[in-house]
Design a protein that fits this description.
Layout: E1 3-11, E2 14-22, E3 29-36, E4 45-51, H1 60-64, H2 68-74, E5 77-81, H3 120-135, E6 138-148, H4 150-161, E7 168-172, H5 182-192, H6 204-209, E8 219-224, H7 230-234, H8 236-246, E9 250-255, H9 262-280
Parallel strand pairs: 4-5, 4-6, 6-7, 7-8, 8-9
Antiparallel strand pairs: 1-2, 2-3, 3-5
């Protein structure tokens, strides 16, 4: 396994780095970012994966969210992957902002031509996780995950399908019921095919409906009430109802005056890092 260092920067007593490796799952080079807190110099630390939203890259969160300050305080390593494969050569892959490039939806596509490279689920759950554990001072038994929008959908679904891997999960404005919204229906229909029963494995609400309190220490979600995508695309009330049915503790905070962007995310970042820290350090 060879990891290419693109750049590294001192940051809050730790190190912010950007890296590239050739992914076997994706079949192409993939880039990712890592923030190592100062505590990592003394040994393995808990790891928190952040999955970004539509149009973002592995840089977006690290530049905009203001998370490193809090990660340094809590001794948590932050990992952010890219949001899709790049340079796939697929016709029309960059024609739409909400599908294709920057819109991998954190699933394994089954439909041609997407199935060859769009394997973000397996890449994240298996390959990138193992890469991080092998190359960085990361504690394999203390891994959490969170994300925003499309990445909030990804965080919830990866956690619900792999509670043995992810000990904590939270989200900002997640696409909470993608099978029931235009963004999800567009992506799932093309990546997974027309059989909607195949979609359920990547739908957080559907997964929760079949669960029984998979995260007894709770799930945290923050949602802005001035979010332009709230009514049509995000549907947090669907996930909230599923959690009630499953007996899953959920803190769903609704905030007046906040929209869908990183001003909102950065406002509540401290709370999310504290939430994960309490669980990951327990």
């Amino acid at each position: 396994m060879t990891i290419e260092c693109i750049s590294e920067h001192g940051c809050f007593g730790g190190k912010q780095g950007f890296y590239r490796h050739v992914s076997k799952e994706i079949g192409l080079p993939m880039q990712f970012s890592v923030f190592q807190p100062p505590q990592a110099s003394a040994g393995p630390v808990p790891v928190l994966f952040f999955l970004a939203g539509l149009t973002c890259t592995e840089e977006t969160f690290m530049i905009k969210a203001g998370a490193q300050r809090y990660a340094a305080a809590h001794g948590i390593m932050l990992i952010t992957p890219d949001t899709s494969p790049r340079n796939t050569g697929i016709d029309g892959v960059a024609d739409r902002w909400d599908f294709g490039n920057g819109a991998g939806f954190y699933l394994d596509a089954t439909q041609s031509p997407w199935s060859t490279h769009f394997r973000m689920y397996s890449y994240l759950v298996h390959e990138l996780r193992q890469t991080i554990l092998s190359a960085f001072p990361a504690n394999a038994d203390r891994i959490g995950i969170f994300g925003h929008s499309m990445g909030g959908h990804g965080a919830l679904t990866l956690a619900l399908r792999n509670p043995d891997i992810y000990r904590s999960v939270s989200a900002f404005a997640p696409i909470a019921a993608p099978s029931q919204c235009p963004w999800g229906q567009k992506a799932f229909g093309q990546y997974l095919g027309v059989d909607q029963s195949d979609w359920q494995q990547y739908d957080a609400t559907a997964l929760m409906e079949k669960s029984r309190a998979p995260f007894p220490q709770g799930i945290l979600i923050d949602q802005g009430l001035s979010d332009q995508f709230l009514a049509a695309e995000l549907l947090p009330e669907k996930f909230e109802a599923a959690c009630q049915q499953a007996g899953q503790p959920l803190t769903l905070r609704r905030h007046a005056g906040y929209d869908h962007g990183y001003y909102f995310i950065s406002t509540f970042m401290e709370d999310h890092l504290a939430f994960h820290s309490q669980i990951l350090h327990a």
